[in-house]
Amino acid sequence: MQLYLYNTLTRQKEEFVPIRPGEVGLYTCGPTVYNFAHIGNLRTYIFEDVLKRVLAFNGYTVRHVMNITDVGHLTGDRDMGEDKMEKGAQREGRTAWDIAEYYTRAFKQDIARLNILEPGIWCKATDSIPEQIDLIRILEQKGFTYRTGDGIYFDTAKFPRYARLSSQNLDALQEGARVEKNPEKRNATDFALWKFSPAAAKRQMEWDSPWGVGFPGWHIECSAMSMQFLGEQLDIHCGGIDHVDIHHTNEIAQSEAATGKKFFNVWMHGAFLNIQGGKKMAKSEENFLTLENALIKRGIPPLAYRYAAFQTHYRKPMEYTDESIQAAKNGLEHLHNQVRQATGAGFDPSPAVRSEFREKFLTAINDDLNMPRAMATIQEMLKSDLPGTEKCATILDFDRVLGLSLDQVDKPREIPLEVQKLVEARLKARASKDFAASDRLRDEIQALGYEVKDTREGMKVLPR
Ligand code: AMP
Ligand code: ZN
Q1: Distance from residue 43's CA to the centre of ligand 1 (Å)
Q2: pLDDT (tens digit per residue) in 16-70
Q3: Cα distances (Å, whole numbers) of residue 277 to 39, 192, 264, 321
Q4: CB 304, CB 325: distance < 8 Å
Q5: From start to end of 17-96, where are the E strands?
Q6: pTM of this prediction?
Q7: Cβ–Cβ < 8 Å for 459, 453
Q8: Cβ proximity of 446 and 435 under 8 Å
Q9: Which residue, judged by its Cα, is nearest atom 11 of ligand 1?
Q10: Hey, what's the torsion of the CAs at 6, 328, 336, 386, to 10 degrees?
Q11: Is residue 27 within 8 Å of 234, Cβ to Cβ?
Q12: Dist. CA 136 → ligand 2 center (Å)
C-alpha cells in the first residue's frame, strides 16, 4: 500500500518514494540542551517517532539521525541575543559542558518514558566542529559568504529561491530588518555561519577556525551532520513548525549552495502544543510544563501523553489542559481494560491478525499519519465480535506503531515458554486425534500451574 506524506516543500500530500529502495534516511532536529524538554517539544518527538514506526510498519529500514544542539546558539532566531548554553550555565552555577550533559541525559530519559525509539545515530554539535568548518569553507570558496565585525555570514541574495520552503515575503522582511541590531548584514535573511568570540570575554565553548576563534552558527550543524552521517541527498527531514521559516530554510540554502544538489526530498513539520487558550508552549515564555511536573508528579503515566498526542493530527495545533490530560489517562486505562478483556481469553498459540482491520489501520496511518483515524479503527476492532485472541493479536500488531506497550498490560504474555511448548504439542495431539497424549499434556500443563480450557474459540491457557 502506498504511503502518503505531507511535504512542506511542495505544500501537498505526496506518495513517498525513497531514494534507495527499501531504505529511508531520516534526520530529525534534536533538542537544545540548556533546559528540560517541555511537553510541546515532546509532542514533536512523538510525531517523529510515529513517522519512524509507520515507515518500519511499511517495511522500510530507517536510518535515523538526531542531533543534540550543545553549542550555545543565540536566544534570538536571527543571530542576536544571548548564548543559551552560557545562560543556562550562569543560571545553575555549572559549566556549559555540564549543563549540556545533564540535560542530554534528562532528554534521553524523557523520550524513553514516552517509548520514543532512540535514533540509530545521536550526534552532538560539539563533536562535529571540523565538519561544520569544512562546509563553511566550501561556501566561502563558492562565494556565498561575507565577513562582518561579528562573524561570517551567508548571503541569501546569492541563493535563488531562498524562501521556497516557507514562502516568506522577503520584501516585508527587509522592511522589518531596519529594527535589527546588525547594520552590517546585507539582507535581513542573511544568517551567521560562524560567530566570533567577543574580544573582551572568553567563552566557555569556542574553537579555532580559519576566520578566528568563535563558534558555529546554529543552522550549520544540521547540514554538516546530516551529510556526514547520511550523505548529500536525503529522504526526510523533520522538526517543529517553527523551524520552517528560518532554521530549515537556512539549512536548505547552505546545503544546496555547497553541494549544488537537492538536499532533502521531503520536509515534515509538526504543529505546536499550545496552552492557556492558543499560546505556544515555549522555553522562553516560562509557561512550559515538563513531563515530570505535568504528569509524573500528578500520578499520570507518561504514556498517557503519548496517547493524548494521537487524538490530534500532527499538523493541527493541540491544546493542553488539565482536563485533556486527565481524559487521555482515562482513555489509556480504558484501552488497557479492553486489551485485558481480550487477553482474558488466555494464551492462544496461533492467533491471527485480522486483515480487514489491518488494512483499515494501514490506510489511516499511510494517509499522512492520520492517528485519530487509526485510533477510531482500533476502537471499531476492539468493539467488534472478533474472538478475544484475534483482537489481542491485532492490537499487538498495531502497537508496533502506537508504542503504548500494550503487551505489558498485566503482562498477559507471561506464560512461560515451557508451558507454551506443551500447549503447542497438545494442539498438535488434538489435531491428530491423539486424545491420550492430549490428556497427558493437559496434566503436565496443570502441574506447572496453568489451566487448559477447550472453548468454542479454541484452546485457552490461563494461570490457575
Ligand atoms: P528546541 O529544543 O527548542 O530546539 O526544540 C526542539 C523541538 O521542539 C523543535 O523541533 C521545535 O520545533 C519543537 N517545538 C518547540 N516548541 C514547540 C511546541 N510548543 N509544540 C511543539 N513543538 C515544539
Ligand atoms: Zn536542525
Answers
A1: 8
A2: 999 999 999 999 999 999 999 999 999 999 999 999 999 999 999 999 999 999 9
A3: 16, 35, 35, 9
A4: yes
A5: 23-28, 61-68
A6: 0.87
A7: yes
A8: no
A9: 240
A10: -50
A11: yes
A12: 16
